[in-house]
Amino acid sequence: MSADELPRPRWFTRHGEGHAQWYIDRFRTMAAEGADLDGEARLLDALLPRGARVLDAGCGPGRVAGALHERGHDVLGVDVDPDLIAAARTDHPGPRWQVADLAALDLDEPPFDLAVLAGNVLLFVAEGTEPLVLRRVAAHVRPDGLVVVGFATDRGYTVPDFDRDRAAAQMRLEHRFATWDLRPWHDDATFAVNVLRRTE
Length: 200
Known about the structure:
alpha/beta, seven-stranded mixed β-sheet, 8 helices
């Protein structure tokens, strides 16, 4: 299936005009107020060797990629929304940035050590493309590399759905937590942080 044949991501179809700017402004305000926006990056940094190659898949306005770059990693941020990528380039000039649909991801890049889908990325891709997105992202990670996925579990895409899709993408679940600061997973958790290992 070509990029032109893919359904539009829910990021565009669920929200009205101006949502990207609202999202950008929200995180700029939080940063200006001193909010801790680096929780995901701290966990990812602990999983990585120094100077690792990282793919931030669905990077939004770039806060996770920016924080990882500040920690010395070589980071590429990819998002389907050009407004979000423009904001990322302005606010976080260190990483590299690219506009792309994750369901058709085909980067001219050496393999990454780790890919991350933070910020509910799987809830914003086109419905039904979740396994395709996971496969396309995993294809850009080196054998035995990691894919870390975080998403809210109470918005229609469930943990059993995810486990089916990550298994189809040839990724083994190594750890599951209820938060990015590693609180233990439990069946009533409203968020899941999944650390996957590429097995093929």
